[in-house]
Task: inverse folding
């Protein structure tokens, strides 16, 4: 929904609302101009423009008739073989309305389709290629079976860089008459980790509180561990004061309601700013990864994080 609103509101070019994917846009533009469109597979991280680009392609091709020639399914909700046999086949076997000789079916989160559904889909893509084109979107192309990948032109989306995120923020700032501090832009980029959707949602949340957006306002919305707080925890640990480090860690997790995995991410980033030898940083990073794995597998986060800061204490003591 956010992507669609963004696409409609700011429409400066033929392929609006998408930044940081210039190579993909050029190729897609040439395909739509020639009407020589194969089945497409968009793969990459969340919030990089995959679903938005699929919608733009359809609107550019069919214009006013786009709703009659377009079927969108979220494969994570409807992931069984019956969806392919019923909804997809029934839509694909009928002719399109207008001058374009094919319809388009967009399968979002296609990597959530069951193996049986993917096998049924490969035959459907083959049998109805004269009347229908498929656009598949996924986060992990490795979860799509090889026969489907071989039938598609694959476009790999990348995480957005800081300059691309800044373009989006500046356009929203102008369009919505906001005041965003340069430090706030930096924090938005770090909080989004290259996810454009998350940036827009963060801006929407903060703008509903105040039109003047600063770092303090964003930090309350992001709810992630602050680097300076994590640095205090690590400094206590490296100085050998395990008790104070543990108390500060507990204070961060309880007062700020920060999850164990968020703390792990903040620790991993802060390790490389510590005044210790590179080989010690490598060992601490390895220990951080091991702790993160244990938390994901279901271990108690606070116990595992205490074990992690114990490793920092031993590193500080030269052991």
Result:
């Amino acid at each position: 929904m956010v992507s669609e609103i963004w696409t409609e509101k700011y429409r400066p070019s033929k392929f609006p609302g998408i930044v940081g994917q210039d190579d993909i846009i050029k190729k897609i533009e040439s395909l739509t101009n020639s009407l020589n469109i194969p089945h497409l597979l968009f793969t990459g991280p969340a919030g990089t423009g995959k679903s938005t680009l699929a919608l733009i392609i359809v609107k550019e091709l069919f214009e006013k008739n786009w709703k009659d020639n377009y079927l969108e399914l979220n494969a994570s909700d409807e992931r069984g073989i019956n969806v392919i046999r019923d909804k997809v086949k029934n839509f694909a076997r009928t002719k399109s309305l207008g001058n374009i000789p094919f319809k388009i079916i967009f399968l979002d989160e296609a990597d959530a389709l069951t193996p049986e559904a993917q096998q049924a889909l490969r035959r459907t893509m083959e049998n109805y290629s004269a009347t229908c084109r498929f656009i598949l979107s996924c986060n992990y192309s490795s979860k799509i079976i090889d026969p489907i990948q071989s039938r598609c032109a694959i476009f790999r989306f990348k995480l957005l860089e800081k300059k691309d995120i800044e373009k989006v923020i500046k356009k929203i700032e102008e369009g919505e008459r906001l005041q965003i501090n340069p430090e706030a832009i930096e924090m938005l980029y770090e909080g989004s980790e290259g996810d454009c959707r998350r940036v827009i949602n963060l801006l929407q949340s903060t703008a509903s509180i105040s039109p003047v957006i600063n770092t303090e306002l964003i930090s309350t919305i992001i709810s992630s561990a602050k680097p300076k707080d994590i640095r205090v925890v690590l400094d206590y640990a490296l100085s050998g004061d395990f008790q104070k480090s543990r108390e500060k860690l507990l204070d961060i997790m309880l007062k700020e309601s920060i999850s164990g995995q968020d703390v792990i991410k903040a620790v991993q980033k802060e390790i490389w700013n510590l005044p210790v030898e590179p080989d010690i940083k490598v060992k601490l990073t390895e220990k951080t990864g091991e702790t993160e794995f244990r938390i994901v597998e279901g271990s108690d986060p606070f116990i595992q994080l205490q074990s992690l800061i114990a490793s920092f204490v031993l590193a500080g003591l030269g052991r």
User: Anything to note?
Assistant: The chain has three domains: 2-156, 162-222, 227-316. Residues 278-296 form the longest helix (19 residues). Confidence is low (pLDDT under 50) at residues 1-13. The beta strands are 39-43, 70-74, 103-108, 132-138, 152-156, 179-180, 212-213.
